[in-house]
Amino acid sequence: MAEPSAATTLEFSIVKQEFLDRIANKQAVIGIVGLGYVGLPLMLRFAEVGYKVLGFDIDQRKVDTLHANQSYIEHISAESIAAARAAGFEATTDFSRAGEADALILCVPTPLNKYREPDLSFVTDTTDSLVPYLRAGHLVSLESTTYPGTTDEELLPRIESRGFKVGEDIYLVYSPEREDPGNPNFTTRTIPKVCGGTTPNCQEIGVALYSAVIDKVVPVSSTRAAEMTKLLENIHRAVNIGLVNEMKIVADKMNIDIHEVIRAAATKPFGFVPYYPGPGLGGHCIPIDPFYLTWKAREYGVHTRFIELAGEVNSSMPDYVISKLAAALNSRKKSINGSKVLILGIAYKKNVDDMRESPSVFLMEKLRDLGAEVAYSDPHVPEFPVMREHHFELSSTTLTPETLAAYDCVLLATDHDRFDYNMIKTHAQLIVDSRGKYTNQADNIIKA
User: Fold this and answer.
1) How do strand 139-142 and strand 29-33 relate by DSSP bridges?
2) Residue 409 annotated to the active site
3) Which residue is catalytic, options 107, 195, 202, 285?
4) Rounded distance, CA 55 to CA 31, Å?
């Protein structure tokens, strides 16, 4: 292939400089593809700074909700949506409008299939939907968590199938999302943003774009390094949670409160970071991301034993909690079959409405399969949502002394701050605490 001429190189430089200028003067139009827990906060941040944002989603209900100045995510206010709309934000299901945007940021799910293998269909299908409308000067950024090589192996060939040359007349970067829904201490603006470009030109454009809305951007040498960075962050958490979950089981056998031990160990000012056990892993990242790396590592003949062992421990935690619950009921001459069990908290973590991969749902299904009459209470999830793989026609039970007393067992699965724990302790016949919320011993409390 012939080297580009000096004139061609100058043309590429002009295109790049024009893009940088549009970013600097806020004339660039930002396209956010996928308006969920990642895309929606990012949209708000770009709109807040003064960019026109065009949001894309396949769900017409989301588009309609946003155009009504309403939010479908609890920690994102209707007021913030209204402000973005007033600033020019528009949502659409029409992907043919992609050409109106200068940057297209992909924030779509990357789940696992039934074989626990990466399902990139959302990424590839979305890219295929956008490719016909790409134009010279576009920036494409993938934020979805995935295995190293996805940007190079899946996005780049699709983009270049249109005749574009990535790094010259179109730009491609990977910048992993780092959202922590419901965490008041960190925002989209203040969480440092990792960015890796396919080429130096791509990197320069990507860093410039994100620097306009994020306080600190961390450049890395490639899209693969950025992809691996995200996996390392979440695998670090998964492995450490696996360790502390295993320690919980050992401590329980020895009649030691693991939460007391963690609190004591955390007083050490160096060399220890506290992680906390629970009924299993939840959220879109921690339960899923390790499998993306283990799957890709097989291509290189590497068996990720440490990561997979942690995954086995974490995946076994719902069964451990059920066994503790069964033993607690049995001590009261009751069985799971026929018992009324109330699940406290069905979001995957405290103080949010995010149900993705929530261990509470797996607990509910296991209890239902064992014959229990299952109900739930969650102030953040008033109705059990429609989910692809889990089906319950339930609404949240209001907690009162009378309703609590009516259940054979109350299983604390997600420790929301809005629960009245004293009332629960006073009126519940039996509490199985999988979160270590109750620090003092009581006859009706079983640690799990």
Assistant:
1) unpaired
2) no
3) 285
4) 6
